[in-house]
Amino acid sequence: MRVRRFAVAVAGLATIAALAACQETPAETPGTGASASASAQTQASASDALAKASTKLRETTAKMTMSMTGTAEMKVTGSIDGPKKASAMVMQVGVMGQNLNMETIQLGDELWLKAAGVPGMPADWMHVDIAKLGAESTLKKQMQDPSYTENLLRSAAAVEWDGTNKVKGTIDMTKSPTMNAAAAAALGANAGAVPFEATLDDQGRLLTMTVKVGQAIPQAGVGDMTVAYSNYGEAVTIAKPTGKIVEAPAAILGAL
Question: What b-and-e string marks burial along 1-15, b requiring 16 or more CB atoms within 10 Å of the CB?
């Protein structure tokens, strides 16, 4: 049971962290006549810019970092290969008084996971049989988008510019493909409007995002989550892990 509770906690953190990568923004208050038309055009261009930025990750390679502070701490570093639908991530998590170092490798529809120092979990790389994951598995849904961003951005309600190459707004987490009942319950009434900010580079690619989870749910003691992308277009090497590989136990699969 201890392993399952810890795995569930980690899966929940990963879900919320993924939400950090999906940012959207609130619409401007429309006016009337010509100014209403201008406002709508500005909002549309900001929304379009953010949507295009997320799809660019599907077309290239990039490095990614993600972090969250507070009572549940998380740091993620890794590489993404959009055209190959591949990613390699290293995650450091502190939750429930325990520390976990976890690695994941995704190659298309294949996934491997390694968790170090967790009692009851294999020390070797585990192959995750995707066919054995439940229909509502957050991990299965996240695998559809290795960038952690594109699918999540579809839950955005409105977007506005906040200076040059910057957008801000709110995101409705309840509409996210990776949201589950437990995470929605934890966010409560504020789940539908969590503030975020994002910056784009001069080529319209995502550079940084901050989701203000701490502002939305201060009672949880969780700080903001930030994600950053860099090294666009540079070569990355993502390969199947070497050494001993075991199949992930059913108890682990049920928590993912």
Answer: eebeebbebbbbbbb
Largest CA distance in the chain: 67
Helix (H, G, I), strand (E, B) or coil at 177: coil
Burial 179-207 (b: 16+ CB within 10 A, else e): beeebeeebeebbbebbbbbbbeeeebbb
d(CA 98, CA 78): 22
Three-state DSSP state, 36: helix
Residue 92 CB neighbour total at 10 angstroms? 14
Per-position pLDDT tens, the chain of length 256: 444 444 444 444 444 443 333 333 333 333 444 444 455 556 668 888 888 888 888 899 999 998 887 777 888 899 999 899 899 999 888 766 777 788 899 998 889 988 876 667 788 899 988 888 877 777 776 676 666 666 656 666 678 999 889 998 887 777 665 566 666 676 677 777 788 888 999 999 999 988 887 777 676 667 788 889 999 999 999 999 998 999 988 877 777 7
Q: Token pair of 73, please?
A: 């701490």
DSSP run (H or E) holding 244 = none
**35 by DSSP, 3-state: which?**
helix
Are 170 and 193 contacting, i.e. CB atoms less than 8 angstroms apart? Answer: yes
Other CB atoms within 10 A of residue 233 CB: 10
Residue 185 in 3-state DSSP? helix
Q: How far is CA 7 from the centre of its chain?
A: 17
